Amino acid sequence: MIEKTILVIDDTISNLDIVNNFLLEYDVIASDNGSDAIEIAKNEKIDLVLLDIMMPNLDGYEVCKILKSDTTTKDIPIIFLTSKSDEDSIEMAYDIGGIDYVTKPFKPKELLAKVKRELYLQDLQEELRLLASTDPMTKLYNRRYFMQISESLLELAKRNGSKTSIAMIDVDYFKKVNDTYGHKVGDDVLVFLSSLLQEKSRKSDIVSRWGGEEFIILFPNTDLDGAFVIAEKMRVSVEKSILCFGNTQKLSFTISMGLASVCNAEDVNIEAAISRADIALYKAKSCGRNRVIV
Asked: In this structure, are 54 and 122 located in the same domain?
């Protein structure tokens, strides 16, 4: 289990020691002033912030506002630590982005319970996000997520005037694989191919399962010539690879790929680009398979 990191911000050193003793199962980073804490939050992976309200120079409210206004820290949940219990102070804490508060003097079980609850909710939200955005078998992005992220990247490409390309990929004679070796081996082929496509793609490329034995890749900031070079390396890598299954059985297979550019014209959308890539894929298959067609 990945250790969670909690940033505790309080100008009273004894309070920092007390909180640290309550949270021994977590990685705790302590800071006694708001300015240093903000820099820590920007440069470390922080899962949760425990933030005192009453501090000199920058009080907790100001620290919270700064963290919530920065794209690198805005999603970090903040629990306020406060000796204030009046409604106005509590309302202010929620209004500026806090998710909860704990009153001083601390009750160890209350503090620990609220911390555990928030971190559990984070894990649950991340699990739900992954389930909603990934294909359960191949662990690639699913079709729905691909469409969402591609539309965003296409809008960015239009604004920047940058080139973008897209590839449709199909496993050649996949039905024959299923009929000959069974669907379990067919699934193994798709998982094996997924790993190869990810391995040969760049970090910025969006590799997704489109459906069945079809895959799709978006190549940001890449013209057709550049995309063809990457696609051809993928095709050759698949052609040269051998999938081992059972005790002694081996299987080789190939893929066909269709490439298209995503134009920067305002009237061109991702669906139009996918349609062109699909036409190119059909040509690749009709011309003998195991090839890349633009």
From this structure: yes
Rounded Cα distance between 262 and 257, Å, is: 16
Interacting residues of 291 by C-beta distance below 8 A, sequence separation 6+: 235, 256, 257, 284
The helix/strand/coil state of 245 is: strand
Looking at the structure, do residues 98 and 68 belong to the same domain, yes or no? yes
> Is residue 199 annotated as a catalytic residue, yes or no?
no
- Count CA atoms within 13 Å of residue 285 on its CB side: 16
Query: Are residue 58 and residue 179 in the same domain, yes or no?
Result: no
* pTM for this entry: 0.66
Distance CA 47, CA 58 (A): 22
Q: Under the phi-then-psi rule, with left for phi > 0, alpha for psi from -120 to 50, and beta for the rest, what region is 221? A: left
Residues 278, 257 contacting (CB under 8 angstroms): no
Contacts with 187 (C-beta within 8 Å, 6 or more apart), sequence order: 137
Contact in structure between 15 and 83 (CB atoms under 8 Å): no
Catalytic, out of 199, 213, 239, 266: 213
Number of structural domains found in the chain: 2
List the structure tokens of 61. Answer: 């409210």
- The residues, any chain, with a CB within 8 Å of residue 18's CB and separated by 6 or more, are 106
Q: What is the pLDDT along the chain (294 residues), one digit of tens a residue?
A: 568 999 999 998 988 888 888 898 899 999 999 999 999 999 999 999 999 998 988 999 999 999 999 999 999 999 998 887 778 888 888 889 898 888 888 788 888 888 998 898 888 887 777 778 999 999 999 999 999 888 888 877 777 777 889 999 999 999 999 999 999 999 999 999 999 999 999 888 999 999 999 999 999 888 899 999 999 999 999 999 999 988 889 999 999 999 998 865 554 678 888 999 999 999 999 999 999 999
CATH number of the domain where residue 237 is located: 3.30.70.270
